């Protein structure tokens, strides 16, 4: 009897046609998804982008891991307590129907986020905190920030933002941002300003207003147009470089094209590419006259425990841009290991940068290469590399030692934190 | 579960167990299986004499169980080695009880080094290794503080189910004698 039972077990253990348990231990992965539905609470809030992503699952073999990741996205979009995945027999043999069930009612439409928290051994701490409140199609964000990492200056102050996610149609969104900052300047920047040919304005405070409208041209390509106004409270440090105290207005009109697409499956991929232009001049009653072009590309691929992230930045400024709009390299995300004040303490009006990050589980290595220069100076490319703990990618938390690659004395820079 | 609900067997110089009353395909795991998901279960079989902290032998195995929504039968894959060099062993078309029995039958402790007359204790532990639910901790706007607080406010992995059964004291010579008798 035992032998018969073992023989039956052996026969039944032969894998069914179309299913490879080596790759996918779920027996249902041999079935084709015939339909996908989302039911339960607040399903009307599901975005077109997510609906489109759900449709791509129909006709493919069942991948429950992918469905779980989609459930997480749906939960985030609908702001519900949970989304469960149910797979049932389809209408035809070999097909299955997938249902996402949004449960638990409405989650609180209030959130507190930390968009940035970075310590760099040469530039100190930078961080911010934001609150988000959503009501209907409206979202209000209020936050405080102290950032000595991303720009030439260290700026600290308040950020406020209002967004309307649908302006008549969900293809048009509106946003108004207001920021108020106090600025501090590094001694290297002050010294460089004194020597500079373009007498940069070392403002002590900045008020920034930027209304903009984003139009979905063709998913996932969007166009954003808007204007920005920056009121700078200028000051003199007595170095002969800055102007006497007074108010300066820098107003600009701009636009940005962005393509952001994600592909999920065996490999998760994310492509985020954009081009932006901002132009300020007398026509907008601006004291500053300049045009700034920036091109960025981010590609992120994840398979198994391995993740690769590639980021490219290229930029060019013509005219004399205020310091907040000049390019910077040598911070927690670009030319990691270099000090931005050693590279260009006033920022540059030309930039090229590329970085490659690779992580296996929580071990991460990276290589950066780039150059920052001005129209009248020579290009001096730099490289850096580092290793540490963290996942490569957009939500990249990093604890690392980074080294500038150069001859002579090499001093490592320590970076701890995350950027979003 | 009572000790009498696990029986110890001798086979191919290894210690096996049989636990017909141990039903780990149940509760949350069963619900997830019926919803078409694959649920991993981690098994530990341990044999010791004297102190449990110094086992004479120990085996770990992971089995992934899934429920065929069309056939209404269970499938089990025994995962071996790393993901890159995996030599899985799979069986399909099982009832829940047969799937449980197959898992338990496919874990064994090598008996080399255990003397025949040594008093022996055996313990089988089963844990459901549910997929980690996403916390929503990290979003496009950064790290969410309420989610962070929520994460640390809850006990770790409350959804994980766990079972354990023990047998002993017994002797290898008795097991060998019983094996010859069958």
Structure commentary:
The complex is a heterodimer of chains A (420) and B (182). Chain A has helices spanning 2-12, 48-55, 64-78, 187-195, 340-343, and strands at 32-40, 80-89, 95-106, 110-120, 124-135, 138-147, 154-164, 172-184, 205-218, 221-234, 246-263, 267-280, 290-303, 306-319, 350-360, 363-373, 382-389, 398-404, 413-419. The termini of chain A are far apart. With 420 residues, chain A is mostly beta strands. Chain A is built from 5 helices and 19 strands. In chain A, strand 15 (350-360) and strand 16 form a beta hairpin. With 182 residues, chain B is α+β, with helices and mostly antiparallel strands. In chain B, strand 9 (138-139) and strand 10 (142-144) form a beta hairpin. Chain B is globular. The A-B interface holds A 9, 12-16, 21-22, 25-28, 31, 62, 64, 68-69, 72, 75-76, 82, 84-89, 93-94, 96, 108, 110-117, 129-130, 132, 141, 304-305, 395, 418, 420 and B 35-38, 64, 66-70, 75, 77, 79, 83, 86, 88-94, 98, 102, 131, 133-134, 136, 138-146.
Low-confidence stretches of chain A: 1-17, 238-243
Strand content of chain A: over 45%
Query: Which series of helices and strands of chain A comes N to C?
Result: HEHHEEEEEEEHEEEEEEHEEEEE
Major sheet description of chain B: 6 strands, antiparallel
Overall body shape of chain A? globular
User: Total strand count of chain A, please?
Assistant: 19
Q: Based on helices, strands and strand pairing, what is the structural class of chain B? A: alpha+beta
Which assembly state applies to the chains in this document? heterodimer
**What is the total tally of β strands of chain B?**
11
Q: Can you give the helix content of chain B as a percent range?
A: 10-25%
Average pLDDT level of chain B? 79
Shape of chain B: globular
Short structural description:
The complex is a heterodimer of chains A (420) and B (182). Chain A is mainly β and 420 residues long.
List its traits.
heterodimer, A: 420 residues, mainly beta, 16-stranded antiparallel beta barrel, three-stranded mixed sheet, 5 helices, 19 strands, globular, disordered N terminus, B: 182 residues, alpha+beta, six-stranded antiparallel sheet, three-stranded antiparallel sheet, 4 helices
């Amino acid at each position: 009897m035992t032998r018969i039972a073992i023989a039956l077990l052996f026969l039944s253990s032969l894998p069914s046609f179309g299913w490879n348990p080596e790759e996918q231990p779920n027996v249902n992965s041999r079935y084709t998804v015939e339909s996908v539905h989302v039911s339960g609470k607040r399903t009307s809030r599901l975005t077109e982008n997510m609906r489109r992503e759900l449709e791509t699952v129909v006709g493919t073999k069942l991948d429950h891991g992918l469905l779980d990741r989609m459930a997480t996205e749906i939960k985030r979009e609908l702001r519900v307590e949970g989304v469960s995945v149910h797979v049932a027999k389809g209408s035809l043999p070999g097909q299955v129907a997938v249902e996402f069930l949004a449960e638990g009612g409405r989650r609180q439409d209030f959130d507190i986020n930390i968009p940035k928290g970075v310590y760099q051994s040469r530039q100190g701490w930078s961080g911010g905190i934001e609150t988000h409140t959503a009501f209907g199609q409206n979202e209000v964000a209020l936050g405080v920030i102290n950032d000595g990492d991303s720009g030439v200056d260290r700026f600290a102050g308040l950020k406020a933002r209002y967004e309307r996610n649908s302006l008549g149609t969900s293809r048009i969104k509106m946003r108004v941002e207001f920021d108020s900052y106090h600025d501090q300047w590094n001694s290297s920047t002050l010294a460089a300003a004194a020597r500079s040919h373009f007498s940069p304005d070392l403002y002590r405070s900045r008020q920034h207003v930027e209304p903009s409208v984003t139009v979905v041209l063709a998913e996932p390509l969007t166009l954003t147009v808007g204007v920005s106004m920056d009121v700078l409270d200028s000051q003199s440090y007595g170095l002969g470089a800055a102007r006497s105290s007074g108010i300066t207005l820098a107003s600009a009109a701009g636009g940005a094209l962005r393509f952001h697409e994600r592909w999920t499956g065996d490999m998760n991929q994310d492509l985020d590419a954009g081009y932006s232009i901002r132009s300020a001049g007398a026509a907008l009653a601006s004291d500053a006259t300049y045009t700034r072009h920036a091109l960025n590309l981010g590609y992120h691929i994840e398979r198994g425990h391995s993740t690769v992230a590639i980021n490219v930045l290229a930029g060019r400024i013509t005219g004399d841009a205020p310091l907040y709009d000049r390019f910077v390299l040598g911070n927690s995300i670009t030319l990691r290991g270099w000090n931005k004040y050693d590279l260009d303490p006033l920022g540059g009006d030309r930039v090229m940068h590329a970085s490659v990050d690779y992580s296996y589980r929580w071990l991460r290595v990276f290589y950066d290469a780039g150059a920052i220069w001005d129209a009248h100076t020579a290009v001096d490319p730099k490289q850096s590399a580092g290793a540490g703990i963290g996942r490569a990618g957009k939500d990249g938390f990093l604890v690392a030692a980074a080294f500038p690659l150069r001859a002579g004395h090499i001093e490592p820079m320590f970076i701890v934190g995350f950027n979003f | 579960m009572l000790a009498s609900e696990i029986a110890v067997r001798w086979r191919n110089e290894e210690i096996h167990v049989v636990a017909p009353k141990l039903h780990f395909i149940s509760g949350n795991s069963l619900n997830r299986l019926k919803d078409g998901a694959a649920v991993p279960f981690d098994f530990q079989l341990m044999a010791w004499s004297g102190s449990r902290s110094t086992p004479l032998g120990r085996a770990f195995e992971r089995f992934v169980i899934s429920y065929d929504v069309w056939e209404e039968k269970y499938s089990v894959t025994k995962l071996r080695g790393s993901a890159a060099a995996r030599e899985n062993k799979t069986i399909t078309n099982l009832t829940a009880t047969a799937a449980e029995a197959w898992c338990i039958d496919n874990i064994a402790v090598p008996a080399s080094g255990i003397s025949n007359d040594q008093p022996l204790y055996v313990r089988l532990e089963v844990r459901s290794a549910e997929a980690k639910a996403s916390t929503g901790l990290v979003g496009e706007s950064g790290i969410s503080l309420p989610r962070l607080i929520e994460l640390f406010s809850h006990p770790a992995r409350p959804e994980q189910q766990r079972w354990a059964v023990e047998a002993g004291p017994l002797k290898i010579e008795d097991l060998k004698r019983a094996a010859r008798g069958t």
